[in-house]
Amino acid sequence: MKQFAFLLTSVFVMFAGSASAKVVVVEGKYQNKNVYVQNGYASSGVGFCTYEVIVNGRVSTDEINAASFEIDLEAFQLKYGDKVTIEIRHRDDCSPHILNPEALKPKASFDLTSMTVNVNGLLSWSTVNESGSLPFIIEQFKWNKWIPVGEVQGIGTPTENNYSFQTELNSGENRFRIKQIGYGALPKCSKATACLSNVPPLTFSTSRNSDDIMFSGQTMFEVYDVYGQIVKRGFGKSIGIGNLTKGHYFLCYDNSITEFKKK
């Protein structure tokens, strides 16, 4: 199972230039929004801080001789999800401020065109209208909840994109969905797809000294105490429970939820 971490396409600021001028660079993906800049005056009090704006290598014709101004990205015939690089060139004794850097950060905006999972656990899906390269989180419904089991990085373009991920099937029915988390928005989840596997139901037993739980095959597992706190989690054929205090616990494995007693 691939561990994943949640990642966002970044919008960042970088300073460069000579002693007489500097550059603020903003990068991201076009989200059908314009960028607003707080400009201000040069420290000398003569003229404004910004003297030139360049978008994807082209000089902007926006009016920038003001305390604040708008960079009209629509004027550059950009398509939703296109890469954008803005260079704001300014005097070295002042610095403009980007008022809405989130305008170039992608949101979870994919549209699912198909998704299937075969009897071997290969999950395949196709999307359109992605606004940026965000990870697809693969979730499996087990033990009455959706559990993340892997991640595939999204391509991030609005054209059709195709993906696949090899899952680990449990016995019986297996349900999967994909999810994306973008900037400043709730996660976007797909509808679930399901398959029936040929994997035989797993069983478990505890060792004589009550220090280990053994499964009849490889499985994802979770162990909870009576207060609902998770105390063990992992994937394998056994669990070391020698460090658990005596008492009752709940064991989630395969597609089952059961109890055991630590003696």
Describe the structure in your own words.
By secondary structure, the protein is mostly beta strands. 0% of the residues lie in helices and 49% in strands. It has three domains: 15-104; 111-196, Sandwich (Immunoglobulin-like); 204-262, Immunoglobulin-like, CATH 2.60.40. It has a five-stranded antiparallel beta sheet, with no helix packed on it. Mean pLDDT is 88; it is low at 1-19.
Average pLDDT over all residues: 88
Largest sheet: 5 strands, antiparallel
Query: What percentage of residues falls in helices of 4 or more residues?
Result: under 10%
Put simply, the count of helices is: 0
Gyration radius (Cα, Å) is 26 Å
How far apart the termini lie comes to 32 Å
Structural class by SSE content: mainly beta
Count of domain modules: 3
The sequence of SSEs as H and E is EEEEEEEEEEEEEEEEEEEEE
% residues in beta strands: over 45%
Number of DSSP-assigned strands:
21
Q: Uncertain runs with pLDDT below 50, 5 residues or more?
A: 1-19
Form type: elongated
As laid out across the biggest beta sheet, the strand order is: 1-2-7-4-5
